[in-house]
Amino acid sequence: MFPERLTFSIADAVNAWVDALVTHYGDLFRQFSDAVLSIIVALEGALRGAPWWLVLIVIVAIAWHATRRVVPTIVIGALLFLVGVMGLWDKMMQTLALMLVATSISVLIGVPLGILSARSDRLRAVLTPLLDIMQTMPSFVYLIPVLMLFGLGKVPAILATVIYAVPPLIRLTDLGIRQVDREVMEAVTAFGASRWQKLLGVQLPLALPSIMAGVNQTTMMALSMVVIASMIGARGLGEEVLIGIQTLDVGRGLQAGLAIVILAVVFDRIIQAYGRPRQEVRS
């Protein structure tokens, strides 16, 4: 047995810190939670209230715009139609709303942090170990602090998903900008471009494949949190899988799992297509 006099625990210090956050900033957290919840409820209401065929047409149109290929577009439409045939369309819309909000927040956080990291070696040195911890920490651990701060519901599920899913986007945005050819940047500098012109006109377009790969990874990691998020009040396909586990209903769990896989395939194909150069997509 390890000597007790040499042991210590960070649990009390962390709990005290979280309690202080709740005490001093509880109202702020509540306002933030209400704002995010209003967005989720509005988006979910729009998706669930719209005719299924209209949502299907919109997603197929986005797939066509991304891929410019007939077969992948038809496959995406057929897969989504299959989810409806299995009776999980409404559940998929709930999950889709959750995913869109979580991915949007991840992009709003991840891309700017990736850009700042690419511009500052010091910031990168600080972020790297933090991102390592975020990616290796068991996903269940993220549920504890968000539950204490926001309670049960969709908001803590989204925040736990964002914490788990945002690291690859930060890393790949940083990598993409750092890999922009120095000769290209020197030429742009010689023409007198400002920092914003370099960033918006050169670095981000050239780093777009890497950034979109980060968005893709973030989306896939967010989808992997769907079932875990259902444990704290997030509904949708994850809830169906959870009920299947609790009731030992293999068919119900497998059916919902297949729907999650289909949603992952749709996201993956569309995001990958947008990440490729347009001339490559057309060919």
From TrEMBL:
Keywords attached to this entry: Cell membrane, Membrane, Transmembrane, Transmembrane helix, Transport
A Pfam family the protein falls into: BPD_transp_1
Superkingdom, taxonomy of origin: Bacteria
GO molecular function (one): amine transmembrane transporter activity
Chain segments annotated as transmembrane: 35-64, 70-89, 96-120, 140-166, 206-233, 253-271
InterPro entries: MetI-like, MetI-like_sf
Transmembrane helix found in the keyword field: yes
Acyltransferase among keywords: no
GO process terms (BP): choline transport; glycine betaine transport
Location within or outside the cell: Cell membrane
Similarity field: Belongs to the binding-protein-dependent transport system permease family.
Protein name: ABC transporter permease
